[in-house]
Amino acid sequence: MNSTNEQAYAKVVENGVQAVEAVKELQITGYLADQIFVLAHEKDRTDRIADTADAKEIGIKEEGVFDSLANLFRSRGDELRAKIVSMGFTEAEADFYESELDKGKVLVIAKKKD
To answer: pTM to 2 decimals?
Structure first.
């Protein structure tokens, strides 16, 4: 499932190699490095893929201070869903994407600045 709205685009890929390819494709289409985010279920995997792909992780700037602090007390699944919602997706979309991350897949998100 891919989702496109005025604010964000998301693509679920099978692994880190495909995530790097998706990031490169987005850069070719005009997205800047600071507009492309990757998300995996495990934080260290997210870090590695973001570094390799020259993409960002969803952080305080995207989430806001309150959600970022709240994530310290959330389960990983709840944290991931909150991060996805902070990028402009609905709760239902966040549930779907988080379930895909549970399966070991990677989510690539591109979002133009507001």
So the answer is: 0.84
Confidence bin at 20 (pLDDT 50/70/90): very high
Distances (CA, A) of 71 to 1, 43, 75: 26, 13, 8
Query: How far is 5 from 59, CA to CA, in rounded Å?
Result: 21
Residue of 72, 111, 77, 75 lying closest to 96 (CA atoms): 77
Q: Residue 12, class by beta-carbon neighbours within 10 Å (0-12 exposed, 13-18 middle, 19+ buried)? A: buried
As a whole number of angstroms, the distance between CA 68 and CA 16 comes to 25
Separation between Cα atoms, residue 16 and residue 92, nearest integer Å: 24
Q: How many CB atoms lie within 10 A of CB 77?
A: 14
- Phi and psi at 111, nearest 5°, equal -140, 120
Please report, for the chain, how many H helices and E strands are present, in that order.
6, 4
